[in-house]
Design goal:
mainly alpha, 63% helix
């Protein structure tokens, strides 16, 4: 990834975000994200926000120097992540195990302690939440 645009696109895809989602989250329009990814600009004032959103090292994103992965210190600058971390730490072992299962990568086997019925119910709930998150606010009111 020799160019700013290539690094932007790679990081966005790794974060599993569309150009529309990125634009909405950083406060710009989708065509600008496309222009940035197509190297129409050498840099952007949005680079720090994009690095934060993509959870990558800002220097790597801007210049291609240093590690791509963000450090723990940089992650802890995110108030939402700090809040989630504290809430997770406060949970009992069973709840932590359930959270770990929910956050697993696809293809990982079901934990030995989980019945097929429980796993199916969790997967159904996950799919419902994903569908609801994609729905427009107008659809959610119905």
């Amino acid at each position: 990834m020799n160019t700013f645009g290539a690094r932007l696109k790679f990081a966005r895809k790794k974060a599993r975000l569309s150009q529309q989602e990125v634009a909405a989250r950083i406060g710009t329009k989708q065509p600008l994200i496309s222009e940035l990814e197509n190297d129409e600009y050498q840099t952007s004032g949005f680079t720090p926000r994009l690095a934060h959103l993509y959870k990558v090292n800002a220097r790597w994103l801007a210049e291609g120097k240093g590690p791509m992965d963000v450090t723990a210190t940089e992650l802890l600058d995110d108030e939402e992540l700090i809040s989630l971390l504290h809430r997770y730490i406060a949970q009992d072992d069973a709840t932590k195990a359930l959270v770990q299962h929910l956050l697993r990568e696809d293809g990982h086997p079901m934990p030995i302690w989980m019945t097929n019925g429980t796993a199916a119910a969790i997967e159904n709930a996950r799919q419902l939440v994903q569908e609801r998150m994609k729905a427009s606010p107008k659809e959610l009111d119905q």
